[in-house]
User: What shape does this take?
Amino acid sequence: MSADQGRNLNLRVARHRRLLAAACLFGAEAVHVSVIDQHLREWLPAGLFFLSLAVVEGMLGVALLAAPSSRAVRWAIWVSALAVAGWLVSRTLGLSFGPMHGMPTPVGRSDLVATLLEVMTVAVLLLRTSRAPAVLGLLSRRSSTALAIGTVVALTGLAVLPAAGPAHPPPDLYPTCPMKIGPACPPGR
Assistant: This one.
């Protein structure tokens, strides 16, 4: 492989890595946007945090696509890594502030997908390109990048779409029963 061919291949690989990282950032942004309302209702600072995180992730995704620079790459790595670290602390130890301080938050589908996308962002941007011809060939193919971005879109859709369930809530079989907790009232009450 000539020096020009090697340089062109490295540029293609770098472009495809930035595309995938931007897709991951946009996916995480979409997940965070989908939970802003819920978090605003629970605790205003949490809602504002997710709003801010979504805006920053979106701006970094645009920066990776429109004006790629080492500064944008570093910021994308740091923001994603800090989001992952915050998620790990909140799910294992619990945050030391807020309405549920010291209580670990249960892992949900949306937050798990957002964290996976942030981990992927860090991995794609941090991992050095291998010199193995097979790996370089795979990373430089548009079809590989398109498949990876399609996977990111599918994961994002899985995270932001509501869980499948009955279209309508089940009917209240005992509407006059005063008991709201525990087993249903027997018929005739």
In short: The two ends are 85 Å apart (CA to CA).
